[in-house]
Design goal:
This protein has about 375 residues and is of the alpha/beta class. The chain folds into two domains: about 1-165 and about 350-365, Glycogen Phosphorylase B (Rossmann fold, 3-Layer(aba) Sandwich); about 170-340, Glycogen Phosphorylase B (Rossmann fold, 3-Layer(aba) Sandwich), CATH 3.40.50. About 40% of the residues lie in helices and about 15% in strands. It contains 13 helices and 13 strands. Helix 1 packs across helix 13 (about 350-360) and helix 6 (about 200-205) packs across helix 11 (about 310-325). The mean pLDDT is about 90.
């Protein structure tokens, strides 16, 4: 059983959905449960998740939620519980201990910068007391960030790196309706929650210095009003498009038709969006952070790193990358190439990911 805090298109939820699908493909019973509530409408791949409560519970609603989790675990008696967030750790894993569920796995998707000191301490305490039997980190950078502060993670921990495979057959050519390019204008693409972590404010600031480009940012979040105001004040309404939460089919299409993928994050675990950009063959401009260096230093894509939080350096790197791009193509030509790429069917990585988890947690039933 996979537990995630809420339904949205974030990396943790996507990995939870991948694992759920992979275990089903291997012939096991598997389910994905959204622990708290549906934060934003988003269609995750694989079987439809179950939502335990329809809205964020208050203090009076927590006992009911805990009882619901207890009843589910007692009814199904799973061999493995995988927890993908702070809150699922706090509520699900102690109940799993009580019910003697043998494999209780914490999946850590973030570096310490993205987790408050209090919750870091809870992660370490649960690991030390074996409330969770194993911690899986999705990147070397995430693992090393915890190990620097908590030596308890030297045991019963492993790194299982996220996998992704683009199925171009799902690409929606109608995405061209989102973008109107002038002749010779280049299309830049960014995807991610509109939050401080994703650092889109620096990207918008950099766009004031970038000529001949249009930027599409796919994602929704709490910083939308601030970014909209920043875009208006800079006079970038025609150059920067906040596309909001768009369907997966359009995300795939944008990876296929963009000239350049940009990811200015302050920190990441192992970004699925970055893995998709690599697989799509995109030219990439990214912030110089450990998790990006980990995946980009060994890839064959054209890559440029910029100094974190420096709009001037980001703008310079964007202009340099744009100057080295191949000949410009109109949007209709780009969407036509999506049909050609549809023959590249996505590889079944879900089973491979599940087997990697099983090998690392010592559950031999599916590791062969």
């Amino acid at each position: 059983m996979n537990f995630a805090t809420q339904l949205e298109g974030g990396g943790a939820q996507m990995v939870a959905a991948q694992l759920c699908s992979g275990f089903l493909e291997l012939g096991f019973e598997s389910s994905l449960l959204s622990f708290l509530y549906e934060k934003r409408s988003f269609e995750l791949p694989g079987p439809k998740p179950s939502i335990l409560v329809s809205q964020k519970p208050g203090l009076l609603g927590l006992p009911k939620l805990i009882l619901r989790i207890f009843q589910l675990l007692r009814q199904h008696r799973p061999d493995v519980v995988l927890s993908h967030s702070v809150y699922t750790n706090l509520f699900v894993l102690p109940i799993a201990v009580l019910l003697r569920i043998p494999h209780r796995i914490t999946v850590q998707h973030n570096e310490t910068q993205d987790v408050s000191p209090l919750f870091q301490w809870f992660y370490a305490l649960f690991h030390l007391l074996r409330i969770n039997t194993h911690t899986v980190f999705v990147s070397d950078a995430s693992y090393e960030s915890y190990l620097r502060h908590y030596r308890c993670f030297e045991r019963d921990s492993s790194v299982v790196k996220n996998l992704i495979s683009i199925d171009w057959r799902s690409a929606d050519p109608a995405v061209a309706g989102l973008v109107q390019l002038e002749p010779e204008e280049r299309l830049l693409f960014a995807v991610g929650r509109l939050s401080r972590q994703k650092n889109h404010a620096v990207l918008v600031e950099a766009m004031k210095r970038v000529q001949g480009c249009k930027l599409v940012i796919a994602g929704e979040g709490e910083l939308r009003p601030m970014l909209e105001s920043q875009i208006r004040e800079a006079g970038l309404e025609k150059s920067v498009i906040l596309a909001g939460e768009i369907p997966r089919e359009k995300i795939v299409a944008l990876f296929g038709i963009c000239d350049l993928f940009v990811m200015p994050s302050l920190y990441e675990g192992r970004s699925l969006a970055m893995l998709e950009a690599i697989q799509a063959g995109c030219s990439i401009v990214a912030s110089r952070i450990p998790s990006f260096e980990e995946v980009l230093d060994s890839c064959s894509n054209d890559v440029a790193f910029f100094d974190l939080e420096s709009p001037e350096d980001l703008a310079a790197k964007l202009q340099e990358a744009v100057a080295s791009l191949p000949a410009w193509k109109a949007i209709p030509q780009r969407t036509q190439s999506l049909e050609e790429r549809a023959a590249e069917s996505g590889k079944a990585v879900n089973v491979q990911l599940c087997r990697s988890y099983c090998q690392n947690i010592g559950w031999s039933s599916c590791s062969a």
